Structures are given as C-alpha cells and as structure tokens.
C-alpha cells in the first residue's frame, strides 16, 4: 500500500542521514520516478524532505526533524523493542522496520540511554539448526493467515504415524523454542495444534475460509498443554559427576543433596515416550529409583540401544 511505503520512507529517513532514491526504489520494488513522487507527497504532508546532488548527497530530512512520541515512555518503548528482538530471533525479518520506527522517535540526546535499556535483557528464541526450513514454513503460514487460505501438509505425530492434513490456520504459537500452528483441522473437524518441525510438503491451498473470533480463554498452550495422562511421581538420583546436569535442568528447591555430592530429584510426568526420551537424554548421569515400571522400561531401551551399536561394530 502507498501509505505504508510513505511511512516507511519517513522512518528510514529519520534513522539515516542520507539515502539514495535508487536504494529506496529497490527496497520497495518501485521505480525511481515513483520514489520522487512519494517525496513530493511527503513534503505536501508537512514533513520536510530535502534532495541534494553530488557526492554524499541523496534524500534526507531537514536537520532536527523528529516524530512525536508522547504516547509511550522511553521504558515502554525499550520494552517493546526488546520483545520485538526476541520474536525476530525466532524467524522472519518483518519486525525490522517496526524496530526502526521505535528507534526513530528517540531523540539523539537519549539514544545512548535507549540502547542501554534495550541491551539489558536479550531474549533469543532461535532454535539450533533447521533455521532455513523453519523460516520458510513460518513465511508461508503467515501469508496463509493474511490471505485467509487453508494449508495442507503431511504431519508426523509423536508415534511416527503420517497423515495428510488440511487446516484453516488461526494463529502461530511460539512455546519455549518450538513453533506451532493452531487451526481447524479438516480431518478432526476441530481445532488442533501442529508442531511446525513435524510438517512435510507444506503448501497453500486455493480454498479460502472465514475466520471466526478466537476465544482468549481455555487455549491449549496455556500451562502444561503437551502432557496428557496422569502424572507419575518419579524419583531420580544424579551422581556427583552429573550434578551440573541436574542444576541446569531443575530449580534449586527441587534438588535434595545425597551427602556424596549428588542429588535426589522427584518429578511428576505422565509415563510415556516423551518421559523416556527426557530421562535417556541424561545418559549415565542419572538413575531412576522409582517407579519400577520406568526403571524396567529404561533398562530395556538401553539394552536395545547397546545391541544396535554392537551390531554395527
């Protein structure tokens, strides 16, 4: 939209001393002539834009021009900026311009203090690896949300079963370090959550849908929504050589010293494949003391793993 381009040009000019018309044209995928028409429109709106020729020239704002920022305090702007940095780290660059807009309304005399505020807390949600494929899926799903079109994909569940899904997307959810899609699943005829990393062959459909209001209460990602079944108390023992793993994973109040440099920890999770994987990730640093059913299952899984590697050797 033209109004978005005009505002974006103003923000860029506020944040940069000079910018070339050709650079703006390339950035917004329009002609240089269109950019100069935009500059005339901006000037007509009362925003003083100057054009200079020669080396070091270009398009610029009159010295000292700033946007009004009376609506928000410096701390509120810094909090918003910090939140945007965290969201941007998880994929996509669409928040970059908004961050520039926020920076633009900070007077030069306060810019150093503002930068200090925005670096006191850094939130990075970016996962390790898979950034390329994940960003592609996020971009496609954001487009589908904007256009109100359904998407289809092959979905691999926690048990390895593959089903073809057609979904009307409602929202993207960042939970921990994982992205999820929440929408109406045609197969289940109800709202479902789908982990983006479990999607294959994701495409937009031609079918459109009418989005209804999404209730803000009772949404499935509030609380411990991934865990199903009745929690089982599980007593773990971390030997002294594995105490650092316990300290990294559990709160200090959950760690009970064993008198030999290690810890006892009691956790409460449903007994399922997620719990087995969680415990196996600690390797030989942990021993499950209770219940016997989990000890037996982990012993069986460890034996199967050992047999597999022995066969390869």
Automatic annotation (TrEMBL):
A matching Pfam family: WCX
Under the heading InterPro entries, the entry gives: CBASS_pafABC_assoc_protein, DeoR_HTH, HTH_11, PafC-like, WCX_dom, WH-like_DNA-bd_sf, WH_DNA-bd_sf, WYL_dom
List the keywords (alphabetical).
Transcription, Transcription regulation
- Name the SUPFAM superfamilies for this protein: Winged helix' DNA-binding domain (SSF46785)
**Which part of the chain is the HTH deoR-type domain?**
2-57
A GO molecular function held by the record: DNA-binding transcription factor activity
What is the name attached to this protein's record?
A: YafY family transcriptional regulator
Species this chain originates from: Paenibacillus agri
- Upper lineage: Bacteria, Bacillati, Bacillota, Bacilli, Bacillales
